[in-house]
Write a structure and sequence with these properties.
single chain; 122 residues; alpha+beta; five-stranded antiparallel beta sheet; 1 helix
Amino acid sequence: MNVVHQRYVAHSEAHYAGNLVDGAFGLRLFGDAGTHLAIVMDGHESLFAGYSSVEFLAPVRGGDVIEVEARLAAKGNRSRTIDFELRVIARAVDDTGRAEVLTEPIVATRARGTGVVPHPTN
């Protein structure tokens, strides 16, 4: 099971030289997608326990269009192991507002984490 969110990255999200967006931006979106996945699967927002791995593989820039995927990797009694991926699917060509949809998405961030749902009697 998986969920996918897509969104435009506003230029105001860039905080670093080269119009770069900080890595925490993607992790915040992983939280949203993980919550969405938990609602679809368990009817509850769940609580996120933590990441076992995070990889920053390519930059995210203001003006990008991205998609974030949360995919169930394993399901325990109350725990849910979730694989996350953030992909850049469109990118600004220059600073005039022109942009292009990428032929192949750029994988910018990958992570694995664990969410926990309450015991059914709670």
